[in-house]
Design a protein that fits this description.
single chain; 249 residues; alpha+beta; 2 domains; four-stranded antiparallel sheet; two-stranded antiparallel sheet; 7 helices; 58% helix; 16% strand
């Protein structure tokens, strides 16, 4: 019997005991003892199974960590071998009719397949958002955040250029499309009542002046970066990179 069935038997015995006015005969006592012992043994068995399963979880986590390490090692090996082989094919391969370099084995051909993917410059995004957060903190500290209805975009861009690009010795400047395409998720901890009927700048003022538990994080959509790059619109948030992978047919 499982624990619940044993509990039902114990309850039935208790009901019988109460019906007898608390009188316990030898038969009832034996039933109580047997059922109670079964219950205790079953509980112990369940507890031991739980302990075993918890130990299994520890082993599973350790095995998962081990497999993750192996996976990363193999991914590095694949990248190294693939890059080496791509360079060899592009340098020493024989051009086919379309001018594409290949290595022909008769039954197999090695060639280089190109695909495009977007590589986001998260470092620039994080630097912009860090600077934005410092600006907000400065305005809050000086009690000047709620004296206006916006932040001067050109002044903000100049500050970004000085902090983000001049310090890194990069000959770049922040673009309007950079600001347009950074999606900001604002995580503010405060009562819901304080968030009602606030939006845009008024929300920002209310949020950061009502609680010091806030943060700003920036992200971009790769589809937006792709559109910017394909239309030759200068931006600092990302670029299209060509990925090369050996193709075996």
């Amino acid at each position: 019997m499982n624990i619940f069935e044993i509990q039902e038997d114990l309850q039935a015995l208790i009901d019988t005991l109460e019906a007898n006015g608390g009188e316990v005969d030898d038969e009832l006592l034996n039933q109580f003892t047997a059922t109670n012992n079964d219950f205790k043994e079953k509980c112990l068995s369940y507890a031991e199974v739980i302990q075993t399963l918890n130990n299994d979880l520890v082993l599973i986590k350790e095995e998962k960590d081990r497999l993750d390490r192996i996976k990363k090692q193999k991914e590095k090996s694949i990248k190294f071998l693939n890059d080496t082989l791509v360079a060899a094919i592009e340098r020493f391969g024989t051009p086919d009719k379309k001018g594409k370099r290949i290595i022909d084995y008769g039954t197999k051909k090695l060639s280089v397949k190109e695909t495009k993917s977007v590589e986001v410059n998260q470092e620039v995004i994080d630097s912009i958002m860090d600077n934005f957060k410092k600006d907000i903190q400065y305005l809050c500290f000086n009690n000047t955040l709620n004296t206006g209805d916006s932040i001067d975009k050109e002044a903000f861009k100049d500050e970004i250029n000085n902090v983000v690009f001049e310090e890194s010795n990069e000959s770049k400047s922040i673009e309007d499309c950079d600001l347009d395409n950074i999606l900001v998720s604002t995580n503010v901890t405060m009562p819901l009542s304080k968030l009602i009927n606030t939006e845009g700048y008024s929300f920002l003022v209310k949020a950061v002046t009502s609680s010091n538990m806030y943060d700003f994080k920036g992200s971009v959509l790769k589809s937006d970066i792709k559109t910017l790059c394909e239309n030759d619109i200068a931006n600092n948030l990302g670029k299209i990179v060509i990925n090369k992978k050996v193709n075996i047919k």
